[in-house]
Amino acid sequence: MPEKKLLLRMSLIIFAVTLSSAYAGLQDRDRSQRPTRQQPRADIPKDVENQYERALDAAEVLRDLTQTPDEGIPSHLLDRAHGVAVFPHVIKAAFGIGGRWGKGLLSVRQGGQWGTPVFVDITGGSFGFQIGGEATDLVLVFMNRRGVDSLLRSKLKLGADATVAAGPVGRSAEAGIDVALNAEIYSYSRSKGLFAGVALDGAVVDFDNSANRDVYGVEGRQLLSARRQASPVTAPFHSALARNTPRSPK
Predict the structure, then answer these.
(1) Pairing between β-strand 131-132 and β-strand 185-191 as defined by DSSP bridges
(2) What are the residues whose beta carbons fall under 8 Å from the beta carbon of 112, sequence distance 6 or more?
(3) Nearest-CA neighbor of 155 among 113, 216, 209?
(4) Paired strand residues for 92
């Protein structure tokens, strides 16, 4: 029995290291294939450069999805959104166990304006035997407060704490949105430049409080519960939201 416990513990450690290495490698490869963008700002401390890179990546995903009206998320849906979460470079990778894992940012509208972005994680997926990984960008569009309230209480399990559905895509979906907005959260993925609605039932969203403490000095629940000035670290994502989804939900 002790040997089995030790073997299980070692397997979990190997899994965590493999997953973390795969995530970092996929991020580096993805960035190397992108056009040159702005360099890190001089006023961004070294110890939060990774969080700043995450905000830049999330802002880029958001810009791409709002500037491709025939293939991206319908603007009318984003105009009505209560919150938006973007997870760049989510990977499906494992050593013996399959699943999703990624880091992103979430912002919620407060008084018609986008609130302070908070750092969040997404985990979950299927179990199976596989080695390797693939990266994709995920976007969650929150249509009401229920999903956010679940996150404030504990964690948000998609499909259980709030209904989730693959979101409509492109300009052709605009006409049917008025009668088809039944889900509380709409989910999207982008792989190889193409956006599509994606089913994410069972995935879990939680605060990345290590990143929140590093950047803001407080945890995610405190950031969502009260107004707080946005940090220069998360400014790229906050600015992209304000610029590309300016209208308040009706």
Answers:
(1) unpaired
(2) 248
(3) 209
(4) 100
